Amino acid sequence: xxxxxxxxxxxxxxxxxxxxxxxxxxxxxxxxxxxxxxxxxxxxxxxxxxxxxxxxxxxxxxxxxxxxxxxxxxxxxxxxxxxxxxxxxxxxxxxxxxxxxxxxxxxxxxxxxxxxxxxxxxxxxxxxxxxxxxxxxxxxxxxxxxxxxxxxxxxxxxxxxxxxxxxxxxxxxxxxxxxxxxxxxxxxxxxxxxxxxxxxxxxxxxxxxxxxxxxxxxxx
Length: 220
Ligand code: SF4
Prior knowledge:
- This protein is 28% helix and 13% strand.
- The protein has a six-stranded mixed β-sheet. The protein has a two-stranded parallel ribbon with strand order 6-8.
- The chain has two domains: 4-98, Gyrase A, domain 2; 117-218, no CATH class.
- The chain is an alpha/beta fold.
- The chain starts with a helix and ends with a helix.
- Strand 4, helix 2 and strand 5 form a beta-alpha-beta unit.
- The protein has helices at residues 4-9, 53-57, 86-96, 100-108, 117-122, 136-146, 205-218; strands at residues 17-19, 22-26, 32-36, 46-48, 79-83, 156-157, 194-196, 199-200.
- Bound molecules: iron/sulfur cluster.
């Protein structure tokens, strides 16, 4: 029996689609090929066949550096993952981008809750409690730099700065907040394969840590 994520993915699986930096293609035998979208036309790729290989592939960038943020645009190149079933595909995609398919399914079903940055900062404890002292202007600049799709993170931001619904950063392009736009191409007028967005429903721990750094830096 299919789970909600697989049901949600099924309509987009009739044709190739993008998920972040990944390209997913269906084979004539009903299996799937996953690769870095930059490698779509390459034939000399290292082939893997186990969905758990995605864990190692996603761990380091091309230079061998650890990737703390799995949705950063630094997925390594030169591989392909051949998977026999939808279940294996779902698990592999969840290793590449943990939690993103479940969030996408919730969003598609109208059940996704978001949490503002101020609410996230207010509930921090210990060494991160001070992060809540960051100013609105500092948030505007920090989010523009840390979350930008070009070099920062490929997620589409759904959360607000605070409960008043203020946008997370006035400096980011409007496409950064639009789940219908591919964050790598970021040009709605260009035609691309279907894109399943990587949604950001609440600020991540790495952004919270950056908020703390800004406050600490401002106080010395
Ligand atoms: S807060 Fe969201 S968009 Fe920003 S870096 Fe973290 S995961 Fe990416």
